[in-house]
Specification:
heterodimer; A: 364 residues; alpha+beta; 7-stranded antiparallel sheet; two-stranded antiparallel ribbon; 11 helices; B: mainly alpha; 8 helices; RNA_pol_sigma_r2 (chain B)
């Protein structure tokens, strides 16, 4: 075989089939529009101050925007909201530095559109603080907010799951009809101190409002009576400054990674953090892939006897005890402790049992 | 999209000029062809978000290959499809491949099987050279290697592949649908 024949043979073995392009229809153009409708975020390595401008959406229809799944299915409650005129459905937020941190009107069309398509409930009572915000993607998510010893957890799900959940609650107690800002639902009583309301499906999702801590029925009725449904901008503006919305992702990721060594080839720009998250959930979604990549690198270095790389990976994993964002992740202490346990095991020479915590497993 | 800033127009040009090369790049490196749609979508999304870092258009293709490499590496690490962007592209892609059943001749499968047996660096050097059609100096940019080192390693990789193919005249028992190789992980 001559060199020329050899080269031709290798080229001919290319599995790519150019004719595929002809069958893509408008999908390539649609993808371009999806991409250009997302906010431009600064590089995480960039110093703050060079702000991106909000993006306009190039095409209508949320259905085409896969990225827009980032902010779906939203029910939200938080303080600092005044109801509108008597009988009015919308509420306007008080202006406070924390409640309007993102800046009214600065949201991308994508974020607003997603918010508009979902229920948005706020507690119109002072003193409530949002915590444990998780998800807001793909029509599921939850937020727990609290005041003093009491909390209220709002979770929302696909409307298709309503029947099963409602049937289950019928085993809990007899349902009692209630309304939350004219949104009908059923109230169930677990015991004298614990209650739940299932709001009926609306716009593709339904909401479960569950008490956390010790409540009285009178307190629950009073709080439910103060829940209002608000417009998208109000809802977005009411997110406390520490909650990470899509438009804050890069800035916050940079902060999370400030003292975290990055594995070889790991590009923070490829991090994909969906939805809206509280600092802990966000930290997990940023540190998880980094930890996973370090563990992968450690295993690779170990298997290939790459001593330098092994030492770097070991040092990085060992340093995880000092990562500030990891120290601040506090989901019952489980996630960070699991991370450190695995990191320490590797740093000590491994091996890691398959049942040990592994940030490569998204379920963890 | 008829209007827009210069910046947007530039990105549209870059996208139009590089969509197919990036799709081909991704197709050559994933196990399931539909995954290539995810890689392409993700790569251009990263490129859009980092478009202020984008080099002049003459150099942008190599920069995109570098982005795609990192996206691919993360894709393999996570072991999961992203599935949030470019959903229609993935669907179209699947049906497009169904249109062409792609009966492969044994000779091609032999070459692919031999490539799959090379180490990651050799394989990536050869794929970038023969399939992406990059010059050694361009391969060096994508892989962030010294151009002289690329030439040396390319020569060695070529010899190894030739050796493997020479000893493997029959098609392999296990038929690879696509190359299905893992991404070369950076710095390794």
């Amino acid at each position: 075989m001559t060199d020329e024949q050899f080269d031709r043979r290798v080229r001919d073995a290319d599995p790519y089939r150019p004719e595929v392009i002809a069958h893509l229809g408008g999908a390539a153009q649609e993808l371009l529009e999806e991409i250009m409708s997302t906010p431009i975020l600064e590089s995480v390595t960039e110093p703050p101050g060079r702000r991106s401008r909000p993006r306009r959406r190039l095409t209508g229809g949320l259905a085409t925007a896969g990225v827009a799944a980032a902010v779906l299915a939203v029910v939200f409650g938080i303080s600092m909201v005044k109801t509108g005129q008597p009988g009015g459905q919308e509420a306007a937020p008080e202006t406070s530095s924390s409640s309007v941190a993102p800046g009214m009107g600065s949201y991308s069309a994508m974020v607003l559109k997603a918010a508009e398509q979902n229920p948005r409930l706020l507690v119109d009572q002072p003193g409530w603080k949002a915590q444990h915000v998780d998800g807001f993607a793909k029509r599921t998510g939850s937020i727990t907010y609290s005041k003093g010893e009491r909390g209220l957890r709002m979770s929302w799900y696909e409307a298709t799951e309503y029947a099963v959940r409602h049937k289950d609650r019928l085993q809990v107690s007899k349902p009692e009809s209630v309304q939350v800002d004219r949104w009908p639902g059923d109230l169930f009583r677990y015991n004298e101190r614990e209650f739940e309301v299932l709001l009926k499906p609306r716009d593709g999702s339904f909401v479960e409002v569950r008490t956390v801590g010790a409540w009285t029925r009178a307190d629950f009725d009073r709080v439910l009576a103060s829940v209002v449904r608000v417009d998208a901008r109000t809802w977005l503006a009411s997110l406390p400054a520490e909650i990470v919305t899509p438009e804050r992702v890069n800035e916050r990721a940079a902060a999370v990674l400030a003292d975290v060594p990055l594995p070889p080839g790991f590009d923070p720009a490829t991090l994909n953090v969906e939805g809206i998250n509280d600092p802990s959930q966000f930290g997990i979604r940023v540190i998880g892939p980094v930890g996973c990549a370090w563990i992968t690198e450690w295993k690779r270095a170990k298997e290939s006897n790459d001593e330098d790389a092994l030492r770097r990976a070991t040092d990085a994993l060992r340093s995880s005890h000092n990562w500030k964002a990891l120290q601040q992740i506090d989901i019952d202490g489980y996630w960070a402790d699991g991370f450190w346990e695995t990191a320490d095991r590797l740093a000590a020479g491994g091996p890691v049992h398959p049942k040990m915590f592994n940030p490569c497993n998204a379920e963890q | 999209m008829s209007s827009g800033t210069e910046h947007e127009k530039r990105f549209q040009r870059v996208y139009a000029a590089n969509f197919e090369p990036l799709l081909a790049y991704a197709m050559r490196r994933v196990e399931q062809p539909e995954d290539a749609a995810d890689i392409v979508a993700e790569t251009f999304l990263v490129a859009w978000r980092r478009s202020h870092e984008m080099p002049p258009e003459a150099e942008v293709r190599l920069w995109l290959h570098g982005v795609a490499r990192r996206v691919l590496a993360n894709h393999h690490r996570s072991g999961a499809r992203r599935g949030r962007l470019g959903d229609r592209l993935r669907q179209r892609f699947r049906s497009a491949l169904a249109v062409d059943p792609g009966s492969e001749v044994p000779e091609l499968l032999t070459v692919r099987a031999a490539l799959a047996r090379l180490n990651e660096v050799d394989r990536e050097l050869l794929m970038l050279t023969f399939w992406e059609g990059l010059e050694p100096r361009e391969v060096a940019v994508v892989l962030e290697l010294n151009p002289a080192a690329v030439r040396t390693r390319l020569s060695r990789a070529r010899a190894r592949l030739r050796d493997l193919i020479g000893h493997d005249l029959d098609p392999p028992g296990h038929v690879l649908d696509v190359m299905a190789v893992r991404a070369l992980e950076e710095g390794r």
